[in-house]
């Protein structure tokens, strides 16, 4: 029995095994991604999103410090 004959005879089982393998690779092999805050055209992973949020929070903190310094001068 050749591979072609086997696949033809066990058609549904072969398709099921192939679908399961593809699903496993998709769900376990790929990191989830979302659109970047800084560049919506780019998709980033959780680690990239955390980095962007940290950078944004540092900028916010700097701006608050600048406002505090300006209020002290008044």
TrEMBL record:
<protein>
    <submittedName>
        <fullName>Uncharacterized protein</fullName>
    </submittedName>
</protein>
<keyword id="KW-1133">Transmembrane helix</keyword>
<keyword id="KW-0812">Transmembrane</keyword>
<feature type="transmembrane region" description="Helical">
    <location>
        <begin position="12"/>
        <end position="29"/>
    </location>
</feature>
<keyword id="KW-0472">Membrane</keyword>
